[in-house]
From TrEMBL:
Main localization category: other
Underlying gene: CTNND2
Keywords associated with the record: Cell adhesion, Cell junction, Repeat
Protein name stated in the entry: Catenin delta-2
UniProt keyword annotation of Repeat present: yes
Species in which this protein is naturally found: Spheniscus mendiculus
Length: 474
């Protein structure tokens, strides 16, 4: 799934953005998104690979967000120097402001950081100069300060400094200064909601840099999951309540954290493995999606992020999980050929006519209990269990956010690909849940990326002979 752009939450008063606000249902520009790694288009049942992370904040869906925060207040009198030649007050020079980050008074440090945030708003040259003069290191040092106000100002400045693809050098510098562990420490210990929004916003901005995706997974995945995503999702506090739904989808912290993980989920096989094995992550993401079904929040950015994470984690499940690697070739052949019914079962096998096999206990046609599933799925099992089909289909039938539609269709495309027994089950479950006409209807939508994902999902569904017949009818 295309990774989401970084976001900058604003600690104080905002200036007006030069960009207009977009609605989630608007027509979205796609041209600015780079193509992903080369795909094998000769294989009609390929799984969907990702697009690389890009940072173009207004070419994706969801409400437009002011890219950087600035201040409407002036620096305090402590951070202004008097010029004796003019007998007046002047604004401090950049080296003076950076030096004030080491002042003995926390109020001066806080105001200096806030003033840096103001100076570098929308100015990449100033951002680069702050880096060259050592300002990023000093701001990172302030993350371990004892005062909350200093944390707030330092995070605001760092958030602006690492915003934008043009500032990847600043992102690398922050990482080299130990900034990611420092942000994680602050996120773990602070209870201030505004600071938590700022910290997760900085991490989201950092996650758009390919070189930082694995460091973020190594240092921040567990804390983002346990300190933000699980508690804010409400997964541990089931059942769903209406007041929680409102709080859930208005949570900027959850939106930022899922945006960060959405970016890093495209970092490759090791990243996917770490995220799949992270306790509670898959459960909480699915819970967020299920809580949004049937409400206006189905089009929210948070839901979009969750769907796109799950889509990426669904890629190459059979090849990258122990459950998939335990599957034997003979068993797979039998499962695939068991998709056909009646006389065709012998003649229309995947590799020509075969001897009739004994019915496998793992075959499932969408009716009755699922083989070998005595207990409800949890954790990584939820990624491939047929029960995941229903929420994906509900999104496809009710959601108007094209990025969420693309993500849900891409997830089904990934799950239905290949000859793994769970892919066979997924194809049967889509038929059972009457999902084929939903997918066919989406071919009419005016969005090429959605149509592409849906069309390839349908091709994978057609590996099931009964699905192929039904698709032809629709």
């Amino acid at each position: 799934a295309p990774s989401s752009p970084g976001v900058d939450s604003v600690p104080l008063q905002r200036t007006g953005s030069q960009h207009g606000t977009q609605n989630a249902t608007a027509t979205f520009q796609r041209a600015s998104y780079a193509a992903g790694p080369a795909s094998n288009y000769a294989d009609p049942y390929r799984q969907l690979q990702y697009c690389p992370s890009v940072e173009s904040p207004y070419s994706k869906s969801g409400p437009a967000i002011p890219p950087e925060g600035t201040l409407a207040r002036s620096p305090s009198i402590d951070s202004i120097q008097k010029d004796p030649r003019e007998f007046g007050w002047r604004d401090p020079e950049l080296p003076e402001v950076i030096q004030m980050l080491q002042h003995q008074f926390p109020s001066v440090q806080s105001n200096a950081a806030a003033y840096l945030q103001h100076l570098c708003f929308g100015d990449n040259k100033i951002k680069a100069e702050i880096r060259r003069q050592g300002g990023i290191q000093l701001l990172v040092d302030l993350l371990d300060h004892r005062m909350t106000e200093v944390h707030r100002s330092a995070c605001g400045a760092l958030r602006n400094l690492v915003y934008g693809k043009a500032n990847d050098d600043n992102k690398i510098a922050l990482k080299n200064c130990g900034g990611i562990p420092a942000l994680v420490r602050l996120l773990r210990k602070t209870t201030d909601l505004e600071i938590r929004e700022l910290v997760t916003g900085v991490l989201w901005n950092l996650s758009s840099c390919d070189a930082l995706k694995m460091p973020i997974i190594q240092d921040a995945l567990a804390v983002l999951t346990n300190a933000v995503i699980i508690p804010h999702s409400g997964w541990e506090n089931s059942p769903l309540q209406d007041d929680h739904k409102i709080q859930l989808h208005s949570s900027q912290v959850l939106r930022n954290a899922t945006g960060c993980l959405r970016n890093v989920s495209s970092a490759g096989e090791e990243a996917r493995r770490r995220m799949r094995e992270c306790d509670g992550l898959t459960d909480a993401l699915l819970y967020v999606i299920q809580s949004a079904l049937g409400s206006s929040e189905i089009d929210s950015k948070t839901v979009e992020n969750c769907v796109c994470i799950l889509r990426n984690l669904s890629y190459r499940l059979a090849a990258e999980t122990s459950q998939g690697q335990q599957m034997g070739t003979d068993e797979l052949d039998g499962l695939l050929c068991g998709d056909a019914n009646g006389k065709d079962a012998e003649s229309s096998g995947c590799w020509g006519k075969k001897k009739k096999k004994k019915k496998s206990q793992d075959q499932w046609d969408g009716v009755g209990p699922l083989p070998d599933c005595a207990e409800p799925p949890k954790g990584i099992q939820m990624l491939w269990h047929p029960s995941i089909v229903k929420p994906y289909l509900t999104l496809l039938s009710e959601c108007s956010n094209p990025d969420t539609l693309e993500g849900a269709a891409g997830a089904l495309q990934n799950l239905a690909a290949g000859s793994w027994k769970w892919s066979v089950y997924i194809r049967a479950a889509v038929r059972k849940e009457k999902g084929l006409p939903i997918l066919v209807e989406l071919l009419r939508i005016d969005n090429d990326r959605v149509v592409c994902a849906v069309a390839t999902a349908l091709r994978n569904m057609a590996l099931d002979v009964r699905n192929k017949e039904l698709i032809g009818m629709f």
